[in-house]
Every structure is written in C-alpha cells, then in structure tokens.
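Q: what sequence does this backbone want?
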C-alpha cells in the first residue's frame, strides 16, 4: 500500500483551498482527468499554488501515477 504525503501549499494557495467547503474539495480531488488513463481519476501526492488568481493543484493519478493537474478558477 502506498503512503500518501500531506499536500504542500503556498500560504495564499492554502488559504484559498481551505475556503472551499470540505465536501467540494473532495469532489474536486476525485474529478481529475488523466491523459494516460484517458478517464477521470483522483489526484494524489499533490501540491498547490496560485497562478494568475487560479488555484493550481499538481500531483499524480491514483491509478497509473502519471502527472495530472487540476485548475480551480478564482472568483
């Protein structure tokens, strides 16, 4: 069994992430497209940064461990 690391966020990214309700955060994490698997997957071992006002999560596909990303647009 793989051990997942705790996410590393920049301070502004952490504030944005924590402002999202927990149930929505979980939905966002489990709805990431993997180009290798060619279907929706869960992002694991991810980091978070703010890029141009958007929250960018970069991590790995839970199935094949390829690189995946999720953009959560700013308001």
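A:
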């Amino acid at each position: 069994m793989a051990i997942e690391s705790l996410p590393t966020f920049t301070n502004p990214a952490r504030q944005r992430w924590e402002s999202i309700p927990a149930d929505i955060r979980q939905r966002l994490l489990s709805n990431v497209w993997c180009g290798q698997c060619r279907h929706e997957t869960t992002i694991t071992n991810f980091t978070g940064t703010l890029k141009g006002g958007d929250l960018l999560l970069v991590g790995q596909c839970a199935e094949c461990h390829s690189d995946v990303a999720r953009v959560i647009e700013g308001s």
